[in-house]
């Protein structure tokens, strides 16, 4: 038994697997074609307590911590879901933490350190599944350069006037509100703040649906802000503290992506192993051939090694240790394992693996974003090099 494998978390795995089997698998192919998951899925997940895992009960969550969230993410994919489904259903995992932290809701027993109305207006309804939130950081002319954000918020009395644009925004089409990174001094100055901007606010428009290689059931959009008036009361935390807030939440986002990567690898090992046992060529099962067995063994080894390292780093993050370098390493290790495994799994499936009817085909497409989102592999290497003193 490990910290991640306790009786309570085994029950959480069983709950998650039952949810995926009953509520997801019969419909996932249709959601892939539709380009989004239904809003009702959020409410269903909330009613059984899955949507609020990792968020304190005092803000409307189900309790638990980062490790519980990892268990849910892992089991969704291991049960036949996908990283695209995780992105669509759990977008609040990146939209809400800044609000919860700024209001003191992430500290057990703490009193409110910020405007409680943000918790009541946005956090509670989202964790109840009746609202959807998104996080808007990336801009058309800049990806990983968070400090270079140019969307500008000018203070005008008790409102900010926001102008700018965002792109690649997960759940941007369905979101009722967007936690938005803006510059509050000069565009590109790095003096950032976070504002909650509601859909329907004059001047805030959602652009076209972005068609993607993978994550087909997760809607992605462009956002535009033209003289959008946002109440100062919708600012998350003190002015010009947004950059630090964003950086502090990156560890959780990156570990979530790392979890999606190794879980996808584990699922593809399972799919490929079953296929090679059942598939016969030239009168013998594929698994009877040493070359195939050794390939499966290598796939299994890489997936399990990635899982073990991500769990180790996640436990250290949950304990409050400063492991920025290790988080970057965990993400890269898991993504590399996933890249190798999904490619090998599809190859072992042969022509069937290239068809949309094959689950492994979806994982192959979905996996490609994991080395890009939350900080690219190259940015992770920069962080690792800095940690080495280079």
Automatic annotation (TrEMBL):
A single Gene Ontology CC term: cytoplasm
Domain of life: Bacteria
InterPro entries: Acyl-CoA_dehydrogenase, Acyl-CoA_DH_CS, Acyl-CoA_Oxase/DH_mid-dom, Acyl-CoA_Oxase/DH_mid-dom_sf, AcylCo_DH-like_C, AcylCo_DH/oxidase_C, AcylCoA_DH/ox_N, AcylCoA_DH/ox_N_sf
Pfam name, any one: Acyl-CoA_dh_1
Acyl-CoA dehydrogenase/oxidase N-terminal domain mapped to chain residues: 6-100
Cofactor(s) demanded: FAD
Residue span(s) of domain Acyl-CoA dehydrogenase/oxidase C-terminal: 241-388
Keyword 4Fe-4S: no
GO biological process, one term: fatty acid beta-oxidation using acyl-CoA dehydrogenase
Record-annotated Acyl-CoA oxidase/dehydrogenase middle domain positions: 134-228
Cross-referenced PROSITE patterns: ACYL_COA_DH_1, ACYL_COA_DH_2
UniProt keyword list: FAD, Flavoprotein, Oxidoreductase
Annotated GO MF terms: acyl-CoA dehydrogenase activity; flavin adenine dinucleotide binding
Matches recorded under SUPFAM superfamilies: Acyl-CoA dehydrogenase C-terminal domain-like, Acyl-CoA dehydrogenase NM domain-like
Similarity comment text for this entry: Belongs to the acyl-CoA dehydrogenase family.
Protein name in UniProt: Acyl-CoA dehydrogenase
Biological source species: Micromonospora auratinigra
């Amino acid at each position: 038994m490990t910290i991640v494998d306790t009786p309570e978390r085994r029950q959480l795995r069983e709950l998650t697997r039952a949810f995926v089997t009953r509520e997801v698998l019969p419909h996932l192919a249709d959601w892939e074609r539709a380009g989004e998951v239904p809003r009702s899925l959020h409410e269903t997940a909330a009613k059984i307590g899955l949507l609020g895992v990792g968020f304190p009960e005092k803000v409307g969550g189900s309790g638990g911590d980062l490790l519980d969230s990892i268990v849910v993410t892992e089991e969704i994919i291991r049960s036949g879901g996908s990283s695209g489904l995780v992105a669509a259903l759990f977008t609040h995992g990146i939209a809400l933490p800044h609000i919860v932290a700024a209001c003191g809701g992430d500290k057990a027993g703490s009193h409110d350190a910020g405007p409680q109305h943000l918790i009541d207006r946005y956090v509670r309804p989202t964790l109840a599944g009746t609202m959807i939130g998104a996080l808007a950081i990336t801009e058309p002319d800049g990806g990983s350069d968070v400090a270079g954000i140019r969307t500008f918020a000018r203070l005008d009395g008790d409102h900010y006037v926001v102008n700018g644009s965002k792109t690649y925004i997960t759940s941007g089409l369905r979101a009722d509100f967007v936690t938005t990174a803006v510059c509050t001094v000069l565009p590109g100055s790095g003096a950032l703040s976070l504002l909650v901007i509601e859909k329907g606010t004059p001047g805030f428009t959602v652009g076209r649906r972005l068609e993607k290689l993978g994550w087909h059931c997760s809607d992605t959009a462009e956002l535009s802000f033209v003289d959008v008036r946002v109440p100062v009361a919708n600012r998350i935390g003190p002015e010009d503290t947004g950059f630090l807030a964003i950086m502090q939440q990156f560890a959780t986002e990156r570990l979530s992506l790392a979890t999606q990567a190794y879980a996808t690898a584990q699922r593809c090992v399972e799919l490929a192993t079953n296929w090679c046992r059942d598939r016969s060529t030239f009168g013998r099962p594929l698994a009877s051939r040493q070359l195939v067995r050794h390939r499966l063994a290598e796939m299994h080894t890489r997936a399990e090694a990635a899982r073990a390292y991500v769990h180790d780093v996640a436990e250290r993050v949950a304990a409050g240790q400063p492991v920025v370098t290790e988080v970057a390493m965990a993400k890269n290790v898991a993504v590399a394992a996933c890249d190798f495994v999904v490619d090998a799994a599809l190859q072992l499936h042969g022509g069937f693996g290239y068809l949309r009817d094959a689950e492994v085909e979806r994982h192959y497409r979905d996996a490609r974003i994991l080395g890009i989102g939350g900080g690219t592999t190259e940015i992770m290497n920069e962080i690792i090099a800095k940690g080495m003193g280079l």
